[in-house]
Amino acid sequence: MRIPPNMAMWKAVGNGILEGISRVADLDASKLTITLSKTLKPIPKDETLLFGNIMSDHMVVAEFDPEIGWSSPEIKPLGPLSLDPTSSCLQYGTSVFEGMKAYIGPDGEPRLFRPDMNMARLARSAERMALPPFSTDQVLALIKQLIIVDRRWIPLSSGYSLYVRPVVMGTRTGLSVVASDRATLCIMLSPAGPYFRSGAKPTVSVLAVSETIRAWPGGTGEHKVGLNYSPGFLPLRVVQKQGYDLVLWLWGDDMKVTEAGAMNVFVVVARDDGGLDLLTPPLDGTILPGVTRDSILALAKAHTAGETTLPGLETQDSQRVRLHAQERAFTMAEMVQWSTEGKILEAFGAGTAVVIASIGKIGWKGKDLDLPVHEGLGPIANAFRTRILDIQEGREVWKNWSLLVTKL
């Protein structure tokens, strides 16, 4: 993505500041100490799990001091953190986070799905919020060690996982409106069931809104920062009172589609040549570069190129359904036109928490777009979900997307 001139200048200034910070101790997983909980919690049954409502027994904590650098990290029993009420994260929202998942494969070993992408995004988010830097390799090493300590919490059922939530929060004290030169890293684990109560293969409804905006060029929409999410709670409450599940966020005078709730959006549109366009908005600075999003695009291109065949996407004469993956902007006016012409075959959202959710209804200006009705996921969405879960859960090897969790 091209960096605007003013952003390039800010990054240069920030890099100069970071040179001074880099002279202090970096995060070092080899200095990890482990204090195990004396009382372990019972493991709930997989079928009772919802997303993010139960935490495992332990967490990782490390702190950054501008004079010393990163402290020796510690795995210790999960518990409250001590924060000064004037901490930067409480006063000015200087917190960033990531979301990733661990799975148990057929070999009985835990694994992570494309964690390098999560670590790179965590570093970019922290840089955008002017938080102290850290080695992403060391954060990943700490995540692995925490998973090993709490591996009994990884669900064994397909479609379930152990959700990993690393958070970096600014802890500078005082009310001055400045960047935080202190920080706390905290890593938590949560056994995860379906994100939506409608089940593992959910269908959601969305209401397109233009009165409120999720992200804008030059903002923080492409980063996982806490302040991106809380402003969406009120609009979500409003659309839910109107009978919809999520907000379909729009941007610009031409009402470009951006994201659905906290998910990346995909639309499958029939082409005149018999192929299918798989459309998703481009990474223009307003769109979160989702790991699942990237995986869908990569698998679609591999399918069309003949490098793999996605399940269920063969015709009766064994020809591949031709998918033309495109990252391009599209508007609500185009969505209405495609719907009127019967060209929208599927719409779905994608993200780490949900994997893939079918969009069954799109509200716009008092009407609902006419979309095909599917039992659960449509064939395109289901093909991607099946293949991604096979890779995540170790039933299939694809490139280097699955990383075994091993000790230091």
From TrEMBL:
It catalyses: L-isoleucine + 2-oxoglutarate = (S)-3-methyl-2-oxopentanoate + L-glutamate; L-valine + 2-oxoglutarate = 3-methyl-2-oxobutanoate + L-glutamate; L-leucine + 2-oxoglutarate = 4-methyl-2-oxopentanoate + L-glutamate. CDD domains: BCAT_beta_family. It holds the Pfam family Aminotran_4. InterPro entries: Aminotrans_IV, Aminotrans_IV_CS, Aminotransferase-like, B_amino_transII, BCAT-like_C, BCAT-like_N, BCAT_family. Keywords: Amino-acid biosynthesis, Aminotransferase, Branched-chain amino acid biosynthesis, Pyridoxal phosphate, Transferase. Its cofactor is pyridoxal 5'-phosphate. GO terms for cellular component: mitochondrion. Its EC number is 2.6.1.42. The modification N6-(pyridoxal phosphate)lysine is found at K224. It comes from the Eukaryota. It is an enzyme of class 2 (transferase). Belongs to the class-IV pyridoxal-phosphate-dependent aminotransferase family. This is Branched-chain-amino-acid aminotransferase. It comes from Gymnopus androsaceus JB14.
